């Protein structure tokens, strides 16, 4: 059973060692991994949340930040509707690299992907990037910005809730068509049932007879 309204695919992107895997682990399992482990290719996590009276299932792909994996991880960008673009607040180079990552994401996915920029490690004192700088870049990217800590969990849940609400708003405004396969959104049984309840019964039957439901293509990797 597809007990959700929509399934969204998210990617987490950024330099190595900025805490991408730690953010995912904190979000999915409420744990922190103190020993640094380099992601070899991709890691995967899933969660189900409620947002704006919708049940949303998230498939989240944490991608490696090393250049040696770049050609492989680009395949995982496909059909992503949301991107968490991460940098380390104590590492200016990781912030400056966001332009490269942003361009790569748009090249592989298109301009319709929704992006949130995350300044991770805000629990540390030796920050090299100020909030106003990050906000200015987020405005340039037409993205939201949030600071978080994978260590203590500060704002980690809010990252994914914010991004999900952003996408739902675009759907409700008609700027994203969830039935268009280019967005890579999978429609669940809850949404199909809700839509069928809205359409009058007599009209529903005629629509089903005249226009058979088309199977949507969904690729998660």
Helix coverage percent: 25-40%
CATH fold group: Rossmann fold
The CATH architecture can be given as 3-Layer(aba) Sandwich
Q: Hey, roughly how much beta strand do the residues contain?
A: 15-25%
Q: Give the CATH superfamily.
A: P-loop containing nucleotide triphosphate hydrolases
| CATH class division | Alpha Beta
Number of strands: 7
Biggest sheet descriptor: 7 strands, mixed
Low-confidence stretches: 65-69, 198-221
Report, as a whole number of angstroms, the end-to-end distance.
Answer: 21 Å
Characterize the overall form.
Answer: globular
InterPro entries: Rab_GTPases_membrane_traffic, Small_GTP-bd, Small_GTPase
Main location: membrane
Subcellular location: Endomembrane system
Keywords: Membrane, Nucleotide-binding
Task: Give short descriptive properties of this protein.
7 strands; 37% helix; 221 residues; alpha/beta; seven-stranded mixed sheet; 8 helices; disordered C terminus; Rossmann fold
Describe this structure as you would to a colleague.
The chain has 221 residues and is α/β, with parallel strands linked by helices. It has a single domain (6-183), classed as Rossmann fold (3-Layer(aba) Sandwich). The protein is 37% helix and 22% strand. It is built from 8 helices and 7 strands, in the order E-H-E-E-H-E-H-H-E-H-E-H-E-H-H. The chain has helices at residues 20-29, 70-77, 92-96, 98-109, 131-140, 156-172, 189-198, 201-210, and strands at residues 6-13, 42-51, 54-63, 82-88, 114-120, 144-147, 186-187. Strands 1, 2, 3, 4, 5, 6 and 7 form a 7-stranded mixed β-sheet that branches. Strand 5 (114-120), helix 5 and strand 6 (144-147) form a beta-alpha-beta unit. The chain is globular, with a radius of gyration of 19 Å.
